[in-house]
Design brief:
- This protein is of the alpha/beta class and 128 residues long.
- The protein has a single domain, classed as 2,3-Dihydroxybiphenyl 1,2-Dioxygenase, domain 1, CATH 3.10.180.10.
- It is built from 2 helices and 8 strands, in the order βαββββαβββ.
- The longest helix has 11 residues, at 16-26.
- The relative contact order is 0.19.
- Residues 5-125 form the VOC domain.
Length: 128
């Protein structure tokens, strides 16, 4: 077997609307409703399905828990532009720009938290 790419992932959240507001208003993702009134966040060719804590869809993770994810997103803007947007939304930084290693090599990242306290890494590859 050879995995081609990640298609979607699932986040269990305390408040779907608060998560939609954050991911759409701050991070620019598109919110959609599908199937049996399920909610998803779209960006690029990927999506994040949202499950309401206590009302998860089957099958699900063994112990779905809000705030247990660490997610890294590659952004198109410079990190200075991203930090300006975060400042406009009163989103504090967890960590100033720092060097990390992404899936394709060296990245520069900043960190924030979503409404469930998931760690969100926003990154750029050099010469992007």
């Amino acid at each position: 077997m050879q995995i081609k790419r990640l298609d979607h992932l699932v986040l269990t959240v305390k408040d779907i609307q608060a998560s939609c507001d954050f991911y759409a208003d701050v991070l620019g993702m598109q919110v959609s409703t599908f199937a049996d009134n399920r909610t998803a966040l779209h960006f690029g060719q990927m999506k994040i399905n949202l499950h309401q804590q206590g009302h998860e869809f089957e099958p699900k993770a063994k112990h779905p828990t809000p705030g247990s994810a660490d997610l890294c997103f590659i952004v198109e803007q410079t990190l200075d532009e991203v930090m300006a947007v975060l400042h406009q939304h009163n989103i504090p930084l967890e960590l100033e720009p720092t060097s990390r290693t992404g899936a394709c090599g060296k990245i520069t990242s900043i960190y924030i938290r979503d409404p469930d306290n998931n760690l969100i890494e926003l990154s750029n590859y050099p010469n992007q």
